[in-house]
Write a structure and sequence with these properties.
By secondary structure, this protein is mainly alpha-helical. The chain contains 5 helices and 2 strands; from the N terminus they run ααααββα. It has a two-stranded antiparallel ribbon with strand order 1-2. Strand 1 (100-101) and strand 2 form a beta hairpin. Helix 4 (62-86) crosses helix 5 (110-126). The longest helix is centred in the middle third of the chain and has 25 residues, at 62-86. The chain is globular.
Amino acid sequence: MHLKFIRCGMYGWCIEVLWTGLNSLLRHDPKLMGFSSLRMFPIYGMASLISPLSALLKSCRTVTRGLIYMLGIFTVEYTSGMYLKKRGCCPWDYSDSRYHVNGVIRLDYAPLWFLTGLFYEKRLRSNP
């Protein structure tokens, strides 16, 4: 299980750096700088929990599995975000977003988390 945790942490870091780099296009920043935080590694590593969950959900439709993963990701993002925020060390702040909840999750990211959960499922199944 620890290798899956490490792989998920690395996938998450890479996805976040790519995402933040692409978002710099919206700010018209030609550097396309992507970034993350060391604190994110264990949070992304928790996606390794998708592996045993996907075994339980293997007979469910893709939409159902994606929705369950999305809710799980929102739960982890919210609880870890609130924990870190109370300690003054949360590396993200969505307070400027129209659809934020306590500044630690963005409801408009639901489709991204849906797809990210399915991505993790596929990666974890193909690399046991």
